[in-house]
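thread from #wetlab-drylab

HS: before we spend reagent money on co-crystallization trials with flavin mononucleotide, can we at least see a predicted complex? here's what I'd submit
DV: go for it
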Amino acid sequence: MAHICIAYHSGFGHTEVIAKKIAEGVKASGCSVDLHNVAELNDALWEHLGKADGIIFGSPTYMANVSAPFKAFMDASSKPWFGQLWKDKLAAGFTNSGGASGDKMLTLQAMGAFAAQHSMIWVSQGLWPSAYNGDGKGTNRLSSWLGHMAQSANEAASETNPNAEDQASAVLFGERFGKATLRWVKGA
Ligand SMILES: Cc1cc2nc3c(=O)[nH]c(=O)nc-3n(C[C@H](O)[C@H](O)[C@H](O)COP(=O)(O)O)c2cc1C
């Protein structure tokens, strides 16, 4: 058994929908999972992150970057960083935003560099974009490679907002991350 934490921020609930879908996929892989909204920085958060075998980071894209509360979490992680307490845990990232692009890539890049500062092992999105084979399934609809991307309309979060195909891909992304973590933990 391996344990995974999803550390995310969501201002209006859209990124949280994706976080929950990723958690579904992680569970399907056979790992246990807990979700933490990092808008609340408390001892339980750091304790859970310290014990996890893998951490998936998630933030909406605000002004072409992670949201301010997620950045506050990044900065607050300087304490585990000093001890390199997350070294060799697996890591991955996801973001949701209003635009099809909306500069989501910059958010994932910020997360990837953040994970590298913690000496973590980055797991990519890993789903072949269905746009390339025209199967109409919408898997990895936004053709992201570095991490998972989702898009939402400027309406309340729901079963179809963020985009339903992006939600379905999030489940597969979580499953991939869980399987990778199981392999990593077994090898150790
Ligand atoms: C302060 C702010 C900045 C935003 N900047 C971007 C942006 O750079 N690119 C984009 O595509 N959407 C942007 N949006 C739209 C959000 O990404 C979108 O509403 C998203 O669904 C919010 O996710 P959340 O509900 O998890 O907070 C921005 C929204 C806000 C409130």
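DV: The mean pLDDT is 98.
HS: ok that's useful, forwarding to the group
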